[in-house]
Amino acid sequence: MRLLLVEDTEDVADAIVASFERRGDAVDLVTSVDEAKSAIAVQEYDVMLLDIGLPDGLGTEVLRSARDRGSRTPILMLTARSEIEDRVAALDKGADDYLVKPFDLRELHARVRAMLRRQDDDRSGIIEFGDVVFDPAGLTVEVSGKPISLARREFNLLEILLANRERVVPKEKIYDCMFSFNDGDVNLNAVELYVGRLRKKLCESRVAIKTLRGLGYQLVSDD
After folding, report:
1. What are phi and psi of 88, to 5 degrees?
2. How far apart are the first and last CA of the chain?
3. How many H-runs (helices) and E-runs (strands) does the chain carry?
4. What does the DSSP 8-state code read for residue 151?
5. Comparing C-alpha atoms, which of 56, 126, 57, 52 is closest to residue 89?
6. Phi and psi (nearest 5°) for 154?
7. pLDDT-above-70 percentage for the chain
8. For residue 132, which of 147, 143, 123 has the smallest C-alpha distance?
9. What is the pLDDT of residue 222?
10. Is residue 206 classed as helix, strand or coil in its secondary structure?
11. CB under 8 Å to 29, separation ≥6 — which residues?
12. For 181, phi and psi rounded to 5 degrees?
C-alpha cells in the first residue's frame, strides 16, 4: 500500500511514517499544500492522510484538488481542531474520515483499514485464498494453518497480489505500491527480487505467483 502523508509537525510525521513502514507500506511525506498537489498530480495513492493546518494553507485545499481530479482515494483528515463545524466541513468536502490530535497510532491504522474496507471488503478483513490466510491487522500470514514469516516488503507484496488475486498486476503498479519517492535508487528489478523471495515462502502452499512476460504477475490457486 502506498500512502501520501501531508503533515508539517516533524515528530508526528516521523511517528506516522515509521508505523506504516514497519508493516511494509510505502509513504510519501510532504509538508505543504503545494507539495501535496504536486505529488497527487504525478502519483496515485491507496490512502491520503491530510493535516488541516499547513504552512501555506489548509489540507482541505488538497482534498478539494484530489476530488476535482476525480480521485476516489480514501482520505483521512488529521486535525487539532475539535470544533464540530471544522469536522463537518471536511466531510462535506469529500473526506472519508477524520482524526483529532493527539491520537493513538493504533486508532489511525484501524481507521485506515476501515476506509479500505468500505472501498473493498477484502482489503481490510482477513483474506483467505487457497490455503493462505492473510491478516493485515495482525500482520500475520498462515499457509495450511501454519504461520510463515515474511519481511515487511514481502508482506506488502503479498497484500498487493491478494487485493488483485487472479488478476494480472503490472510490474510498474507493484513498484508504485511498494516504494516511495524516497526509494528513488530502487529500480523495477527490485520487484522481481521480492517476487522470487515470496515465491520461495509460498512454495508449499496451493497458491502460486505466475509471471506473464510483458504483462506482470498473477496470484493463482490450484483449488
Report:
1. -60, -40
2. 27
3. 9, 14
4. -
5. 52
6. -65, -40
7. 96
8. 143
9. 85
10. coil
11. 5, 7, 13, 17
12. -60, -30
User: Residue 122: is its pLDDT beyond 90?
Assistant: no
Q: What is the C-alpha to C-alpha distance for residues 43 and 160, in angstroms, rounded to an integer?
A: 17
> What distance in Å separates the CA atoms of residue 154 and residue 77, rounded to the nearest whole number?
29
Comparing 16-20, 148-152, 183-187, the range with the smallest average pLDDT is: 183-187
Within 13 Å, how many C-alpha atoms sit on residue 12's CB side?
Answer: 19
The predicted-structure confidence for 133-179, as pLDDT tens digits, reads as follows 998 888 899 999 999 999 999 999 999 999 899 999 999 999 999 99
pLDDT for 91 equals 85
Residue with cell 474496507: 117
What is the CA 155 to chain-centroid distance, rounded? 12
Q: What is the pTM of this model?
A: 0.82
Question: CA–CA separation, 74 vs 140, rounded Å?
Answer: 24
Task: Map residue 54 onto helix, strand or coil.
Answer: strand
The C-alpha atoms of residue 53 and residue 71 are separated, in whole angstroms, by 22
